[in-house]
Amino acid sequence: MKKQRIIGQTKDVGFQVGVRRTFSISQEKAWELITSKEGLDLWLGESTSIILEPGQKYLAKTGAGEIRIVKPLQQLRLTWQKEEWEKPSTVQVRIISKASNKTTISFHQEKLADKNFREEMKVYWGEILDGITERLQN
Predict the structure, then answer these.
(1) What does the pLDDT read at residue 98?
(2) Contacts 24+ apart (CB under 8 A), 55-58
(3) The whole model's pTM is what?
(4) What's the mean pLDDT in 102-108?
(5) CATH 3.40.50.1380 fits 15-137, yes or no
């Protein structure tokens, strides 16, 4: 009999979660928003400086990790480990251009330890997208 997996559980990378939202902004504006000091502080937590180049390590208020992939205007991939976590997770941020000046910002996180961390991060990323929405309305 096949063992039933819990929602968000993968065969190879533990638990994962993804949230996305489409905004009425250009791909360039979305990238700038995510990668600016203000943007990084919003979704990764305050830090002194984060250098967005593969191999660069960073320390932020919410945790630490290493930048893995930087594809300007498209994708960031990094490891992220909160203090209370045993192992780092992998976070991927994608900027997906849609027609007529609409852009989707997507956060995907894998290698989460269990369903509780998955739920916690689902709420977290939803709040981050709410914060982006608020910033764009001001």
Answers:
(1) 86
(2) none
(3) 0.91
(4) 97
(5) no
